[in-house]
Known about the structure:
Elements: H1 5-19, H2 35-44, H3 51-66, H4 78-89, H5 103-106
Amino acid sequence: MFKNQARLRGIVSEVINKHDPEGLLGSGAPLDEYDPEIDDIVNCLAPGTSRDQAWILICNTLFWYFGDHRQPVLYWNKHREIADELVSRLPEVDQVESLATCDAQRGLGTH
């Protein structure tokens, strides 16, 4: 768990909005468009999250909100860039302890 959840959320928000993974912000959507996805990602991140874990988390989260649930999850390489930037910025957040991975990192969450 991260001590400074507000700082963590700010970083996740900056990274997700910068990459605009679904192209929504570029199409005129409001800046809070990805807030539910950002909240889910923040709730699943822990100190020590690897780039691959972050990539799977991001792909699963975006698929849950935007994917065709009749199809398997798509693990897009373009989301690796988001994961790389996000993990590289995690040291900016005060860390407390590592928690077990959440359901969204292992598969689809319980939404």
